[in-house]
Amino acid sequence: MSWNSIEEVLQALVSPDPEEQHKAVEALGRYADFDALEQKLLQGDVALRVAAARALALLGDRRATEPLIAALKCDESPHVRRAAAEALGQLKDRRALTPLVEALQDDDRHLRQAAAVALGELGEGRTAHTLFQALKREREGDVRAALVGALGRLAGTGFAPVLLKIARNDWHLETRRQAIAALGFIENTQVVNTLIDLARRDADYRVRETAALALGYRNAEQRCKALMAICASDRDARVRVAALRALGAFRGRHVTDLILRRLREDDTRFVRLAAVSLLKSRMNHDVIAALIEAACNDRETPVREAAVRALGETDEDAAIDFLKTVITSKESVSLEIAAAEALGRIAVRTGKVGRIIEALIHRPEYALRGIDAALKQGTFSPEVTRRLLLVLRNAPKVRENAPLRAKIEKIMHGLSAGCEREV
Question: Model pTM?
Fold first, then answer.
C-alpha cells in the first residue's frame, strides 16, 4: 500500500481496518516528520488531529509534549483531548504531570479515564496520593477502574489496604479486577490470603479468573499450591485456564505433572489447549509421550492439531518420527498440515534436514508455513534453510506448481539479501 501525502497516512492510522492501521504505523517514518504532524495537530479536522496526536506518540519525539499539552487543555474536541492525554502517557515526559492531574477533574469522564491511565504510564510515585483522592470522589465505574489500575502501578505496598477493600467489596466489577491485578505484585500474607480466597470462593467467575492470574505474578510456594488446587477443582473452565496460565510462571516436576493431568483428564477443550501451550516449554520424555497420545487420541481435532504443532518445539527423535508418520498417514488433512509445519520448524531450527526432507516433500506447501514461522523467530541457519528450500523447490510437486515455486524463490532471495546486509 502506498500513500501520496501525510494526510492519507493519518487517515489510515485511524482506519477501522487493523491491517491498514499497522501499515500506516510502518509508513510514519517515511511520510511524517515532527513539523508536519504538529501542524496537523493544530489545524486538521478532528479525525486528522486525533491521528496526529497518536502519530506524535508513536514517533516518540518529546518535542511533541508542549503541543500535546496545548491540545489537552484547549482543543474544542473531546476526542482530540483524549487522544492528547493518551499520547502524553506514551511519551512519559514529566512536563505532562500537572496537566494530566488537572484533567482528572474534567467534566468529560472519558478524558478523566485517559488521564488516569496516562498518569499510571508516567510512573511518578508522587501522584499516588492525587490518584487516591480522585478515586474517593469518582462515581463513574470505568474511571474508577482506570484510577485503581494507575494506583496499583505507582503505589506499591503503601495502598495495599485500600486495594484490598476495593478487591473485596467495590460495586464496580472492573474496578475490583484492577485492584486484584495490582495486589498480585504485592507479597505479604494478608494480600496473598485474600487473593487465594477470591480465586477459590468469589461468586463471579471473572473475579476468580483475575485472582488466579494475579497469583501467578510472584513465584511463591503458597501461590503455586493454591493455583494447582484451583486448576483441578474450579467449576468454570475459564478459571481453570487462568490458573493453568498462571502456573506457567512456576517450574518443577509437580507443576508439569499437573499440566499433564489437565491435558489427559479435563473435559473442556480450552483447558486442554491451554495445557498443550504450556507444555511447549517443558519438553521431556513424559511431555513428548503425552503430546503424542493427545495427537492420536484426543476427542477434539483442535487439541490434536495443537499437540502435533507443539511437537515442533523439540528435536527429539520420538517427536520427529511421529510427525513423519502423521504427514504420510493420509488420515487427516488438518493433522498432515500441522505435522508439515512442525517438521519445517524443526528442520530450519536444528538442521536435521536429511531425516525430515522426505516427509516434507509430501506437503511442501504446508512445510513452507513452518519454515516461514521459524525464520520469523530469528533462530535459524541460513545455509541449512537455503539447502532445505532448494530441495523443496526441485520436488516434483513444486516443479508443477508455479506459485509455490515462486514463493520458495522469494524466501531464498530474502535469505540472500539478509546475508548481504549482515556482511
Answer: 0.81
